[in-house]
Specification:
Blueprint: H1 5-17, H2 26-34, H3 47-52, H4 55-63, H5 73-109, E1 114-117, E2 121-124, H6 126-141, H7 145-160, H8 167-186, H9 196-202, H10 209-224, H11 243-255, H12 257-260, H13 266-271
Antiparallel strand pairs: 1-2
Helix pairs in contact: 1-5, 2-4, 2-5, 7-8, 8-11, 9-10
Length: 273
Amino acid sequence: MIGVWSESWRDIWSRLAKHPNAPEDLFCELFRDLNLARSAPLDPATELADIVDKPEQARLAFRRTKAATLKGEVALLDFMERAHGVVVDLGGDPLANRYFMLTEAFLNKYNLRYDLRRPYSLNPTLPGVFARLMRDLKDATAQDRHLHALMMEFEDAVRDLRVDRSAGKIKTCIQKQVNLLEAIGRLCPGVTANTLGGICDQVGTWPHFKVKEAMKYLYGFASDYPGIRHGGTPRNSIREIEMRDFVGITVLLAGFAPYLTNLINSDTVYRGT
């Protein structure tokens, strides 16, 4: 949401203000709530009071509020939800329904991964959670030169599938992803092991030993299947690697990342920062 906040004036707020039930002081109250989402809120008794006392000035201040001045995604989502209460108080159900419909169209227009539910709550979706996990993992690895290089190698391998979806290229993707997980696992506090299997035994983050075993089995697969991490054991392979394996195993391995590192905050993965 915060990435397209600048577009919301045209698609949501200016249109909302044109509704017959929208009062003149709509932005006085909305800006009062938006101020709570700012990184450096205006003083309620001075600067803010002066702005919200004049409808045109409040409208201009609301419109000029940049994403960079806001605390982050969660603060913005909280404002959007609080704004619904403001709209209900000022314009009743007709104005509130207009706000709901404008937000829903906005989410669809920019393919934002939130599910809007009545009366007005913005809920993360599964695609959104997974996309955020990968984004946060990329952001975390960017802070370390070695991890950044491994992430770039993994992403390059994935891009290579666009023109060549051979078994060899798919094996490379899996190999690069396992290498990345192994590297981030080595940086987890208390870990001294060098292999992903050993790291799994030391991280101490598992909710059940079967979850740990699942990760270790995937690592065992990558080590034993011919041509992924090692020469492997040919007699143990049932068939040649194909695209379904790329999709399935890549998603599975990504899902284990929060167990192998403290660089990812799972609460923010769910709803932002």
